[in-house]
Design brief:
Blueprint (H helix, E strand, L loop, with lengths): L1 H7 L1 H11 L17 H13 L4 H14 L5 H4 L8 E2 L6 E6 L2 E6 L10 H14 L6 E6 L11 H4 L6 H20 L5 E5 L3 E2 L1 H4 L6 E5 L3 E3 L3 H4 L8 H13 L3 E2 H6 L5 E3 L4 H12 L4 H34 L2 H16 L1
Parallel strand pairs: 3-4, 4-5, 5-7, 6-8, 7-10
Antiparallel strand pairs: 1-2, 2-3, 8-9
Helix pairs in contact: 1-3, 1-4, 6-8, 8-14
Length: 341
Amino acid sequence: KLLLSIRGNQSLCSSSSSQTGRATEGPCNTPKPSMLDFVNKAKWDAWNALGSLPKETARQNYVDLVCSLSPSSESSSQVKPAAANEKQPGSENIIVTSQDGITKIMFNRPTKKNAITTSMYKEIIHALKAASTDNSAITVITGNGDYYSSGNDLTNFTDVRPTSIEETAKNGSILLRDFVDAFIDFPKPLVAVVNGPAVGIVVTLLGLFDVVYASDKVNFNTPLSPLDRSSKQKLNKETIEPAAEMLILGRKLTAGEACARGLVTEVFPESTFQKEVWTRLKAYAKLPTNSLRISKELIRSNEKEKLHAVNAEECTVLQGRWLSEECMNALMNFVSRKSKL
Protein backbone atom coordinates (compact mmCIF):
# COMPACT_ATOMS: atom_id res chain seq x y z
CA LYS A 1 0.00 0.00 0.00
CA LEU A 2 2.86 2.37 0.70
CA LEU A 3 4.21 1.73 -2.79
CA LEU A 4 0.81 2.37 -4.31
CA SER A 5 0.48 5.63 -2.43
CA ILE A 6 3.41 7.08 -4.36
CA ARG A 7 1.40 6.87 -7.60
CA GLY A 8 -1.54 8.60 -5.96
CA ASN A 9 0.51 11.44 -4.51
CA GLN A 10 0.72 13.87 -7.42
CA SER A 11 3.32 16.16 -5.88
CA LEU A 12 5.67 13.26 -5.33
CA CYS A 13 5.12 11.95 -8.83
CA SER A 14 5.76 15.36 -10.31
CA SER A 15 8.93 15.67 -8.32
CA SER A 16 10.06 12.25 -9.51
CA SER A 17 9.25 13.14 -13.10
CA SER A 18 11.18 16.41 -13.04
CA GLN A 19 14.24 14.77 -11.57
CA THR A 20 14.39 11.64 -13.66
CA GLY A 21 12.56 12.62 -16.85
CA ARG A 22 9.83 10.04 -16.27
CA ALA A 23 6.13 10.25 -16.86
CA THR A 24 3.71 10.01 -13.93
CA GLU A 25 1.72 7.09 -15.30
CA GLY A 26 2.40 3.80 -17.04
CA PRO A 27 5.21 1.29 -16.66
CA CYS A 28 8.65 2.46 -15.63
CA ASN A 29 10.93 2.48 -18.73
CA THR A 30 13.75 4.80 -17.67
CA PRO A 31 17.21 3.56 -16.72
CA LYS A 32 17.67 2.52 -13.13
CA PRO A 33 19.56 5.22 -11.16
CA SER A 34 22.93 4.53 -9.59
CA MET A 35 23.10 2.69 -6.27
CA LEU A 36 24.55 5.87 -4.75
CA ASP A 37 21.62 7.99 -5.93
CA PHE A 38 19.54 6.91 -2.93
CA VAL A 39 16.53 9.18 -3.40
CA ASN A 40 15.93 8.58 -7.11
CA LYS A 41 16.69 4.88 -6.76
CA ALA A 42 14.02 4.58 -4.08
CA LYS A 43 11.53 6.37 -6.33
CA TRP A 44 12.50 4.21 -9.32
CA ASP A 45 12.06 1.01 -7.28
CA ALA A 46 8.67 2.16 -6.00
CA TRP A 47 7.44 3.14 -9.50
CA ASN A 48 8.77 -0.06 -11.03
CA ALA A 49 6.91 -2.12 -8.44
CA LEU A 50 3.62 -0.57 -9.56
CA GLY A 51 3.87 -2.00 -13.06
CA SER A 52 0.98 -0.86 -15.28
CA LEU A 53 -1.44 -0.03 -12.47
CA PRO A 54 -3.88 2.70 -13.66
CA LYS A 55 -3.59 6.09 -11.97
CA GLU A 56 -7.20 6.07 -10.67
CA THR A 57 -6.69 2.67 -9.07
CA ALA A 58 -3.50 3.88 -7.43
CA ARG A 59 -5.29 6.97 -6.13
CA GLN A 60 -8.08 4.84 -4.65
CA ASN A 61 -5.48 2.62 -2.98
CA TYR A 62 -3.90 5.75 -1.53
CA VAL A 63 -7.27 6.88 -0.14
CA ASP A 64 -7.84 3.44 1.35
CA LEU A 65 -4.41 3.58 2.96
CA VAL A 66 -5.09 6.96 4.56
CA CYS A 67 -8.49 5.75 5.81
CA SER A 68 -6.89 2.67 7.32
CA LEU A 69 -4.59 4.92 9.36
CA SER A 70 -7.39 7.08 10.78
CA PRO A 71 -8.23 6.82 14.51
CA SER A 72 -11.59 5.21 13.80
CA SER A 73 -10.16 2.33 11.82
CA GLU A 74 -9.82 -1.19 13.10
CA SER A 75 -6.08 -1.25 12.62
CA SER A 76 -5.51 1.82 14.74
CA SER A 77 -7.53 0.34 17.56
CA GLN A 78 -5.05 -2.49 17.78
CA VAL A 79 -2.11 -0.18 18.51
CA LYS A 80 -2.74 2.30 21.29
CA PRO A 81 -0.28 4.62 22.99
CA ALA A 82 0.64 3.59 26.52
CA ALA A 83 -1.32 5.32 29.22
CA ALA A 84 0.44 7.29 31.92
CA ASN A 85 -0.69 4.74 34.50
CA GLU A 86 -1.47 1.57 32.61
CA LYS A 87 -3.14 -1.27 34.50
CA GLN A 88 -1.93 -4.68 33.43
CA PRO A 89 -4.02 -7.86 33.26
CA GLY A 90 -4.44 -9.44 36.66
CA SER A 91 -7.01 -10.05 39.37
CA GLU A 92 -8.49 -8.09 42.23
CA ASN A 93 -6.00 -9.73 44.61
CA ILE A 94 -2.87 -8.83 42.64
CA ILE A 95 -2.89 -5.43 40.94
CA VAL A 96 -0.17 -4.67 38.39
CA THR A 97 0.37 -1.14 37.07
CA SER A 98 3.08 0.60 35.04
CA GLN A 99 3.91 4.28 35.46
CA ASP A 100 7.02 6.49 35.36
CA GLY A 101 9.24 3.59 34.31
CA ILE A 102 8.11 1.47 37.28
CA THR A 103 6.05 -1.73 37.22
CA LYS A 104 4.25 -2.09 40.56
CA ILE A 105 2.94 -5.47 41.72
CA MET A 106 0.64 -4.92 44.69
CA PHE A 107 -0.90 -7.41 47.11
CA ASN A 108 -4.54 -6.34 47.28
CA ARG A 109 -6.35 -8.22 50.05
CA PRO A 110 -6.27 -5.56 52.76
CA THR A 111 -9.18 -7.08 54.71
CA LYS A 112 -7.21 -10.37 54.86
CA LYS A 113 -3.89 -8.67 55.69
CA ASN A 114 -2.78 -9.44 52.13
CA ALA A 115 -2.47 -13.16 52.87
CA ILE A 116 -1.28 -15.03 49.79
CA THR A 117 -3.55 -17.68 48.28
CA THR A 118 -2.49 -20.42 45.88
CA SER A 119 -3.94 -18.51 42.92
CA MET A 120 -2.01 -15.40 43.99
CA TYR A 121 1.25 -17.36 43.85
CA LYS A 122 0.50 -18.15 40.21
CA GLU A 123 -0.49 -14.57 39.44
CA ILE A 124 2.72 -13.19 40.94
CA ILE A 125 4.78 -15.62 38.84
CA HIS A 126 2.94 -14.42 35.74
CA ALA A 127 3.32 -10.76 36.75
CA LEU A 128 7.08 -11.14 37.26
CA LYS A 129 7.51 -12.84 33.89
CA ALA A 130 5.56 -10.05 32.17
CA ALA A 131 7.49 -7.33 34.03
CA SER A 132 10.80 -8.88 33.02
CA THR A 133 10.14 -8.03 29.36
CA ASP A 134 8.10 -4.82 29.57
CA ASN A 135 9.46 -1.28 29.09
CA SER A 136 9.86 -0.47 32.77
CA ALA A 137 13.27 0.08 34.34
CA ILE A 138 12.52 -1.35 37.79
CA THR A 139 9.85 -3.51 39.42
CA VAL A 140 8.36 -2.90 42.86
CA ILE A 141 6.35 -5.21 45.11
CA THR A 142 4.25 -3.68 47.88
CA GLY A 143 1.00 -4.14 49.77
CA ASN A 144 -2.29 -2.28 49.87
CA GLY A 145 -3.56 -1.23 53.29
CA ASP A 146 -1.99 -1.70 56.71
CA TYR A 147 -0.05 -4.90 55.92
CA TYR A 148 2.68 -5.70 53.44
CA SER A 149 1.60 -9.35 53.66
CA SER A 150 0.75 -11.80 56.43
CA GLY A 151 2.27 -14.68 54.45
CA ASN A 152 0.37 -17.79 53.45
CA ASP A 153 -3.40 -17.82 53.63
CA LEU A 154 -4.04 -20.78 55.91
CA THR A 155 -6.83 -22.00 53.63
CA ASN A 156 -3.97 -23.17 51.41
CA PHE A 157 -3.47 -25.89 54.04
CA THR A 158 -6.90 -26.35 55.59
CA ASP A 159 -9.02 -26.63 52.43
CA VAL A 160 -7.55 -30.00 51.49
CA ARG A 161 -9.41 -33.31 51.18
CA PRO A 162 -7.89 -36.11 53.32
CA THR A 163 -7.55 -38.30 50.23
CA SER A 164 -5.46 -35.72 48.38
CA ILE A 165 -3.04 -34.52 51.06
CA GLU A 166 0.04 -36.06 49.46
CA GLU A 167 -0.84 -34.77 45.99
CA THR A 168 -1.54 -31.30 47.40
CA ALA A 169 1.81 -31.27 49.20
CA LYS A 170 3.61 -32.29 46.01
CA ASN A 171 1.85 -29.66 43.90
CA GLY A 172 2.47 -27.05 46.58
CA SER A 173 6.17 -27.87 46.57
CA ILE A 174 6.36 -27.44 42.80
CA LEU A 175 4.46 -24.17 42.93
CA LEU A 176 6.68 -22.81 45.69
CA ARG A 177 9.81 -23.76 43.76
CA ASP A 178 8.53 -22.01 40.62
CA PHE A 179 7.50 -19.00 42.68
CA VAL A 180 10.92 -18.51 44.26
CA ASP A 181 12.70 -19.27 40.97
CA ALA A 182 10.78 -16.35 39.42
CA PHE A 183 12.42 -14.04 41.98
CA ILE A 184 15.86 -15.59 41.53
CA ASP A 185 15.77 -15.19 37.74
CA PHE A 186 14.18 -11.74 37.60
CA PRO A 187 16.54 -9.65 35.43
CA LYS A 188 15.65 -6.10 36.50
CA PRO A 189 16.20 -4.28 39.78
CA LEU A 190 13.55 -5.67 42.16
CA VAL A 191 12.44 -3.49 45.07
CA ALA A 192 10.29 -4.35 48.09
CA VAL A 193 8.37 -1.40 49.53
CA VAL A 194 7.37 -2.85 52.91
CA ASN A 195 4.48 -0.64 53.95
CA GLY A 196 3.32 -2.72 56.93
CA PRO A 197 3.96 -5.90 58.94
CA ALA A 198 5.52 -8.75 56.98
CA VAL A 199 5.06 -12.38 58.00
CA GLY A 200 6.36 -15.75 56.81
CA ILE A 201 7.49 -16.29 53.25
CA VAL A 202 7.39 -12.61 52.30
CA VAL A 203 10.04 -12.02 54.97
CA THR A 204 12.35 -14.83 53.94
CA LEU A 205 12.10 -13.74 50.30
CA LEU A 206 13.59 -10.34 51.06
CA GLY A 207 17.14 -11.52 50.37
CA LEU A 208 16.15 -12.07 46.74
CA PHE A 209 15.26 -8.40 46.32
CA ASP A 210 17.91 -5.91 45.28
CA VAL A 211 16.54 -3.17 47.52
CA VAL A 212 14.19 -3.32 50.54
CA TYR A 213 12.65 -0.13 51.94
CA ALA A 214 10.58 -0.27 55.13
CA SER A 215 8.58 2.03 57.35
CA ASP A 216 9.89 2.40 60.91
CA LYS A 217 6.54 1.05 62.16
CA VAL A 218 7.00 -2.28 60.36
CA ASN A 219 7.90 -5.58 62.03
CA PHE A 220 9.09 -8.86 60.54
CA ASN A 221 8.09 -12.31 61.76
CA THR A 222 8.38 -15.98 60.71
CA PRO A 223 6.12 -17.74 63.25
CA LEU A 224 5.09 -20.84 61.30
CA SER A 225 8.43 -22.26 60.27
CA PRO A 226 7.14 -25.61 58.98
CA LEU A 227 4.35 -23.94 56.99
CA ASP A 228 5.58 -20.85 55.19
CA ARG A 229 9.31 -20.64 55.77
CA SER A 230 11.92 -20.40 53.07
CA SER A 231 15.52 -19.33 53.62
CA LYS A 232 16.91 -19.04 50.12
CA GLN A 233 18.79 -15.88 50.86
CA LYS A 234 20.74 -17.31 53.81
CA LEU A 235 23.82 -18.24 51.85
CA ASN A 236 26.63 -16.81 53.95
CA LYS A 237 27.67 -16.64 57.57
CA GLU A 238 27.24 -12.86 57.77
CA THR A 239 23.54 -13.16 56.92
CA ILE A 240 22.66 -16.44 58.65
CA GLU A 241 23.86 -15.60 62.16
CA PRO A 242 22.17 -12.19 62.61
CA ALA A 243 18.83 -13.53 61.31
CA ALA A 244 18.95 -16.96 62.97
CA GLU A 245 16.97 -15.87 66.03
CA MET A 246 14.07 -14.87 63.78
CA LEU A 247 14.35 -17.77 61.34
CA ILE A 248 14.84 -20.57 63.85
CA LEU A 249 13.12 -19.31 66.98
CA GLY A 250 10.49 -17.07 65.42
CA ARG A 251 11.52 -13.85 67.17
CA LYS A 252 9.76 -10.78 65.77
CA LEU A 253 12.15 -8.09 64.50
CA THR A 254 11.56 -4.35 64.26
CA ALA A 255 12.42 -2.55 61.05
CA GLY A 256 15.60 -1.20 62.66
CA GLU A 257 16.67 -4.68 63.78
CA ALA A 258 15.91 -6.12 60.34
CA CYS A 259 18.03 -3.38 58.78
CA ALA A 260 20.90 -4.12 61.15
CA ARG A 261 20.70 -7.81 60.17
CA GLY A 262 20.83 -7.07 56.44
CA LEU A 263 17.21 -7.90 55.59
CA VAL A 264 16.28 -4.24 54.96
CA THR A 265 18.22 -1.66 52.95
CA GLU A 266 16.86 1.50 54.58
CA VAL A 267 14.19 2.49 57.10
CA PHE A 268 12.04 5.63 56.68
CA PRO A 269 9.75 7.47 59.12
CA GLU A 270 6.16 6.30 58.72
CA SER A 271 4.94 9.89 58.22
CA THR A 272 7.09 10.40 55.11
CA PHE A 273 7.60 6.79 54.02
CA GLN A 274 5.50 6.74 50.84
CA LYS A 275 6.60 10.17 49.62
CA GLU A 276 10.32 9.61 50.18
CA VAL A 277 10.39 6.09 48.76
CA TRP A 278 8.43 6.78 45.59
CA THR A 279 10.33 10.00 44.88
CA ARG A 280 13.56 8.04 45.04
CA LEU A 281 12.24 5.16 42.93
CA LYS A 282 11.02 7.52 40.20
CA ALA A 283 14.50 9.01 40.03
CA TYR A 284 16.07 5.54 39.79
CA ALA A 285 13.63 4.58 37.01
CA LYS A 286 15.13 7.31 34.81
CA LEU A 287 18.51 5.57 34.77
CA PRO A 288 19.50 3.67 31.58
CA THR A 289 17.46 0.46 31.56
CA ASN A 290 20.09 -1.75 29.95
CA SER A 291 22.78 -0.53 32.33
CA LEU A 292 20.56 -1.46 35.28
CA ARG A 293 20.04 -4.97 33.89
CA ILE A 294 23.74 -5.48 33.19
CA SER A 295 24.74 -4.22 36.63
CA LYS A 296 22.34 -6.63 38.31
CA GLU A 297 23.55 -9.51 36.15
CA LEU A 298 27.16 -8.84 37.12
CA ILE A 299 26.25 -8.78 40.81
CA ARG A 300 23.81 -11.70 40.90
CA SER A 301 24.96 -14.13 38.19
CA ASN A 302 27.49 -16.01 40.35
CA GLU A 303 24.93 -16.92 43.00
CA LYS A 304 22.02 -17.98 40.76
CA GLU A 305 23.07 -21.61 40.43
CA LYS A 306 23.44 -21.99 44.18
CA LEU A 307 20.13 -20.22 44.82
CA HIS A 308 18.28 -22.59 42.50
CA ALA A 309 19.91 -25.60 44.16
CA VAL A 310 18.99 -24.38 47.65
CA ASN A 311 15.46 -23.63 46.48
CA ALA A 312 14.94 -27.11 45.03
CA GLU A 313 16.37 -28.79 48.13
CA GLU A 314 14.29 -26.72 50.53
CA CYS A 315 11.05 -27.33 48.61
CA THR A 316 11.68 -31.07 48.81
CA VAL A 317 12.21 -30.80 52.58
CA LEU A 318 9.09 -28.64 52.97
CA GLN A 319 6.99 -31.18 51.08
CA GLY A 320 7.92 -33.76 53.72
CA ARG A 321 7.36 -31.33 56.57
CA TRP A 322 3.86 -30.47 55.35
CA LEU A 323 2.92 -34.16 55.64
CA SER A 324 4.39 -34.57 59.14
CA GLU A 325 2.29 -34.97 62.29
CA GLU A 326 4.26 -32.15 63.89
CA CYS A 327 3.23 -29.75 61.12
CA MET A 328 -0.41 -30.84 61.30
CA ASN A 329 -0.46 -30.23 65.06
CA ALA A 330 1.22 -26.83 64.68
CA LEU A 331 -1.36 -25.82 62.10
CA MET A 332 -4.30 -26.97 64.23
CA ASN A 333 -2.95 -25.19 67.31
CA PHE A 334 -2.48 -21.98 65.33
CA VAL A 335 -6.01 -22.16 63.89
CA SER A 336 -7.40 -22.85 67.36
CA ARG A 337 -5.66 -19.81 68.84
CA LYS A 338 -6.93 -17.61 66.00
CA SER A 339 -10.52 -18.82 66.43
CA LYS A 340 -10.40 -18.01 70.16
CA LEU A 341 -9.16 -14.51 69.40
